[in-house]
Amino acid sequence: MNGALWDPVGSSPSLLSVVRAGAVGAAPLPDDPPPAANGLRWAPGALGGVLSQHAAPMSVPDAITDQVVTVLERHRDGRLDRDELERLVATLATGPVAAGDRVARAVIGWVRTEPDPGRTPATAAAMADLARWLIDTGTDRHAAGVGMALAGLLTGLAGRQAEIEVLGRHEALAQDAVRALRGLGPDAVRALRGLGPDAVEPLWELARQHTGWGRIHAVEALAPFAGQPDLRRWLVTRGFRNHVHLGYTVPLVVRAADVAGLLREVDPDTAERPLLDGARDIALSVLEPGGPAGSVDDLPETAEILLWWLDSVTAAGPERMSLDDVDAAAGLVPELDELDPDLGFDDERREAVGRACRRILTDPAVRGLVRAAIEDGTALNGSLQAAELLGIDPLPALLQALGAAPEQGWLWYQASRAVPDGAADRAGELLAAARALLPADAVSTDRRAVVGPVPGLHQGVIFLLQHLVSRFPGIGWPWLEPLLRSPLVGARAQALTAVTTWPRAGWPVEAVGALAAARDRETDDRLRARFEAVLG
Question: Which end of the chain has a smaller Cβ tally under 10 Å, C or N?
Fold first, then answer.
């Protein structure tokens, strides 16, 4: 490689050097796109991950693929100049997310049309030079991604396997790194499998390093090798877990690792905790409605997995039972009739699930476990369904926790849900605490855009509205009235929705005037129409 020709473009640090220096996981990168006008931005790797799961492969502008092919062709023929490389870098920076895969496929198409097979070694050498340069010096994720994709086409990854593994430590680059390490297409996957465990380890290491989209991509790449005993057990106990959604990995792991078959080999009486937790959470994930994996009706082994877990935890006794086990059993009881036959639940298995859950929930030691966990606060961030079924009131412990940490929005969520329908005195008790601990205008003075969970006091007010105020007509007007003045259209809409759940006779005397004033101020046409409909 000619030194001057292949010098870095510009003076910015390469992504390789940035990641190597410690910018791993979701750490900021120099080429992070700016946030949208509302202040939101995609989490690292999330856009590429969502598109890979829910959209057709993205098209890449011909200008990008044509320019890559032109650079390769001219370099192979000894006619490449510096200006062309600089133009290529500028063009790649404008490309869509995860463009490397599509560029690599375009390069494959170009190679296959080469009429002179004798030029193949020179073509491969040109590809290796460009791949190494983009990986080593690329200052944005598009250039580095194309470099990794080109390396993934070549034997030995153009001598850049170690560098690809480094880049893959960052969530924003993990998808391209995984694709390079596994190769492109089924032929590459078959070749990789033939190399044995040594070829799997780099992908497995990436999977272990990540918990987000990087984990999902790596687990997908590892699926063909799930028969390897150590990898199989890791996939079932830890590998399926990710903080995006288990629905992206669980169906794949159930099939590839043959989870039911693995559990048949384990005595339920001696099963270790990681395997118990894995079996439970895998089965519950399949049963969860509306997950991103779509229909999982072709997983009839789900019933066998769930029953193995129930048999194991009941055989072990309450001394080995976790709060998560109890919560899971409590959550299954009201859903017994909904257990899908397509997931392996015939009448006999459905009854067996019910018997096992009731055995767990009627054990006096389990009741003591739940009560102690509620009182010391360790169970407050989990499901409170077990407490409800066992007749244990968590509200006193929640109020105590709120007094110490009112900025913890999830505590307001749990407390709001812990108030039973019709228990107006308990609702009043919680609202009295809220008036003492939360500013009534926490939402009306907060201009942050709200998409999904938001932190702190803002979140506490939202949860009170959604899960408490709307259930008790006339209670909570001090929270609703400030929301009607919020700069957030969603907050104003939530306030109106809460009011409309109350009978008109239960409105405070000042409600009509406040709603009319809110209608007159309203700038959103659809919401103004809702105000008018409510006021009549």
Answer: C
d(CA 333, CA 336): 6
Question: Rounded mean pLDDT of 434-454?
Answer: 53
pLDDT score for 1: 57
User: What is the tally of structural domains in the chain?
Assistant: 3
Domain range for 191 is 1-31+39-225
Task: Please check whether residue 507 lies inside any domain of the structure.
Answer: yes
SS3 letters across 200-239: HHHHHHHHHHCCCHHHHHHHHHHHHHCCCHHHHHHHHHHH
270 plus 315 within the same structural domain: yes
Query: What is the mean pLDDT of the segment spanning 261-278?
Result: 94
Q: Which helix (H) or strand (E) covers residue 319, if one does? A: none
| pLDDT score of 95 more than 90 | no
For residue 235, is it within any domain?
no
Q: How many residues in total does the chain contain?
A: 536
The verdict on 279 and 174 lying in the same domain is no
Q: How many of the other CB atoms lie within 10 Å of CB of 172?
A: 30
Percent of the chain predicted with pLDDT > 70: 90
Task: Give the pLDDT score at 117.
Answer: 73
My answer on whether 87 and 218 are in the same domain is: yes
Q: What is the pLDDT of residues 472-504, one digit of tens each?
A: 887 778 777 877 887 778 778 888 988 888 888
Calculate the CA 80 to chain-centre distance: 43
Residue 301 belongs to what H/E stretch?
none
Question: Do 426 and 321 fall into the same domain?
Answer: no
DSSP secondary structure of 62-96:
HHHHHHHHHHHHHHHTT---HHHHHHHHHHHTTSP
